[in-house]
Design a protein that fits this description.
Blueprint: E1 38-45, E2 51-60, E3 68-70, H1 72-88, H2 96-100, E4 104-112, E5 127-129, H3 135-147, E6 155-157, E7 160-161, E8 167-168, H4 173-183, E9 189-193, H5 199-206, E10 214-218, H6 221-228, H7 232-242, H8 252-268, H9 277-289, H10 296-312, H11 324-328, H12 332-348, H13 354-357, H14 359-367, H15 374-394, H16 398-423, H17 430-445, H18 449-466, H19 473-489, H20 494-504, H21 512-529, H22 533-550, H23 555-567, H24 576-588, H25 596-599, H26 604-614
Parallel strand pairs: 3-5, 6-9, 9-10
Antiparallel strand pairs: 1-2, 2-4, 7-8
Length: 617
């Protein structure tokens, strides 16, 4: 337990003017605050249309009587945010699961009555809290509880959290601000969405009840967490180390657990992690502080973590290969992850030879039993097939290109056949199967027209035989992959355009955003190809709205939208050189899924056309 935070000193709301019963305000007794305790702000309206605000105290890890109860949708929101928290605070790996079902308690600490409130008017003794405006507060509470950080003493939050971590505006802000200023006079900052247009007017309207409150605007959950916990990277690192080091003295077993855990973070979350600096800071700290205690393999794993995180931050760092004896000391699941990582890094970096980098995955595949780790096996084999496809695109020799594409196709079909057999007994593998089939559609699009047509019929028959459930994500992903291939072959393909139009205008949560944005891009390309310039411009504009509204890492799709706009004859700030610079920057950040090698030696226009034609998303 912590000592009472400054904002929890009792506020006297028992004046006759307020007309609020003393028991609804703070008592004079000191209040003990646990990690994770944060204020919640709500607004309510009675049958007469009168609105008022209420300040609540959310306590985590405590199961006791409460004045309020979270509605079912808020309990779901709490669990969803906990599950996503490692995206923003990555060193919490393993811990977010603990907070998903932790006990919470909501205590009402102050109500701000309507201006025409009459003392005889009853307020509810208890409330069922609803609405999404607690999203940011929930996340700040979870970070405090998981990292054992005191909650910010001068900050309250009122913002909803949309998909991708974007913060959205909320209603009833004036009533919430009035209640906050009455009950918690020492809380000087209010965190809201950057799109909350009435924040300043709400402060002015409530200013008569206390001193001014500073508005803190945040566009994403990551921004909100940074505002509340400015020392997050160091605190996350210390919390991470506390899990593995007892009494401040590292042991060989504790060091091995810590190094494998931090490596597991970068291997498992490299596609979605939004906050890399804490991981990099922890790896470097462990390298420096534990220098005298590190075994060779531990040092190598931490160096690999450092190199991967630096590459994700834009540095061109070559990843040094492990030798056979070093790999043998690493847990098997990490061996498989390292193998896949080497293939991916070799596709991104000119400093790593593609053929040489394939040696490690092949070595791991031969050494690790397939049956015990079958799915990771097929992921590595898929990465190898994609590297073969990349080798084909890099060569100017037509015969060599055809041979390598056929090799990649053969490898990919073997993967699909086996994953398909496994999916018959495990529906959870349908997503993996859809991804592997999408690669076959991509490979088909690189073939001559007649061969592409033949392979399309072959894949359509496979789809019908599998019978993906309509409306589920695997089915949508497969439909997009098929439509993309059909539009490359025939830009006016009616069914393919209909699929893209449907997927592009559907609403859904991530990862459906990926499908939605990609569908709009390919629809715009087909419209451009058949001379529908006005329709293509409208589609590109919609694409831009979708990715901007979603928040998160939308820069790849924004670049693709601008490339299509340029190819449409765009003007203004959408210039060829500027787009080429952005393309190279994304390449430096390893965000082009290996296609960077293919465009580095091309002239700007050729590079943009290549990405527009071959980039699969």
């Amino acid at each position: 337990m912590l000592t009472r935070a400054p904002w929890l000193w009792p506020a006297d709301a028992a004046s006759p003017e307020a007309g609020v019963a003393r028991e609804l305000a703070f008592s004079d007794a000191p209040v003990a605050v646990s990690f994770g305790s944060v204020p919640l702000l709500s607004s309510s309206t009675d049958p007469r249309g009168r609105a008022w605000g209420t300040v609540w105290l959310l306590s985590v890890g405590e199961d006791a009587d409460a004045d309020g109860e979270l509605a079912a949708e808020l309990e779901t929101l709490w669990r969803e945010l906990a599950a996503q928290l490692s995206r923003w605070v990555p060193l919490l790996t393993g811990h977010p699961v603990e907070v998903q079902h932790v006990a919470t308690r909501v205590q009402r600490i102050h109500m701000s009555p309507p201006p025409d409130y009459l003392p005889q008017d009853p307020f509810p003794a208890a409330e069922l809290l609803r609405g999404a405006s607690f999203g940011a507060s929930f996340a700040l509470s979870q970070v405090s509880w998981l990292l054992e950080l005191p909650p910010p003493s001068d900050l309250a939050a009122s913002a909803a959290v949309a998909r991708g971590g974007k913060l959205e505006p909320v209603g009833g802000l004036e009533e919430k601000v009035r209640a906050l200023m009455e009950a918690v006079p020492r809380m000087r900052r209010l965190l809201v969405s950057s799109q909350q247009t009435d924040a300043e007017s709400a402060i002015r309207a409530a200013a008569g009840t206390g001193d001014a409150v500073e508005i803190v605007r945040a566009g994403t959950l990551q921004d909100a967490i940074a505002a509340a916990y400015p020392d997050l990277a160091r605190q996350a690192m210390l919390a991470f180390e506390r899990r593995f080091v007892a009494g401040g003295i590292p042991t060989p077993a504790g060091i091995r657990d810590a190094t494998t855990s931090v490596l597991d973070i970068v291997l498992e979350s490299r596609h979605w992690l939004a906050n890399w600096p804490p991981v990099r800071a922890t790896a470097r700290s462990m390298l420096e502080r534990w220098d005298a205690h590190l075994a060779v393999v531990d040092r190598r794993m931490l160096q690999l973590v450092d190199a991967i995180t630096r590459r994700h931050e834009g540095e061109d760092v070559a990843v040094r290969l492990f030798d056979e004896s070093e790999l043998a000391e690493i847990p098997v699941r990490l061996q498989l992850g390292i193998a896949a990582q080497f293939v991916q890094q070799s596709m991104d970096s000119d400093d790593m030879d593609l053929e040489t980098a394939r040696a490690i995955p092949l070595q791991v595949l031969n050494a690790v039993p397939t049956l015990a780790h079958e799915v990771p096996h097929f992921r590595i084999r898929g990465a190898l097939a994609r590297s073969t496809r990349m080798l084909a695109l890099l060569t100017d020799d037509e015969r060599q290109r055809a041979d390598r594409l056929e090799q990649a196709r053969t490898e990919q079909w073997a993967i699909v056949d086996r994953v398909r057999q496994m999916a018959q007994h495990n529906e959870g593998l349908l997503g993996e199967l859809s991804y592997q089939i999408s690669e076959l559609y991509l490979l088909a699009s690189f073939q001559p027209e007649q061969e592409t047509t033949r392979q399309l019929h072959e894949l359509l028959a496979l789809e019908q035989e599998i019978g993906f459930q309509h409306g589920a994500f695997p089915a949508a992903f497969i439909a997009l992959s098929r439509a993309r291939c059909q539009l490359i072959l025939e830009p006016a393909h009616h069914d393919a355009r209909s699929v893209c139009r449907h997927l592009g205008t559907s609403q859904g949560a991530a990862p459906e955003l990926h499908v939605q944005a990609s569908a709009l891009r390919w629809l715009a390309r087909s419209q451009l190809a058949v001379g529908e310039s006005d329709e293509a411009r409208s589609t590109v504009a919609l694409l831009e709205q979708v990715v901007r509204r979603a928040g998160g890492r939308a820069d790849v799709f924004l670049l693709l939208a601008d490339i299509e706009r340029l190819l449409l004859g765009g003007h203004g700030d959408v210039t060829e050189d500027a787009l080429h610079d952005r393309l190279l920057q994304l390449d430096r950040l390893s965000r082009l899924w290996g296609f960077g090698r293919c465009i580095r030696a091309l002239e700007p226009r050729k590079a943009l056309e290549f990405i527009s034609r071959y980039f699969p998303y």
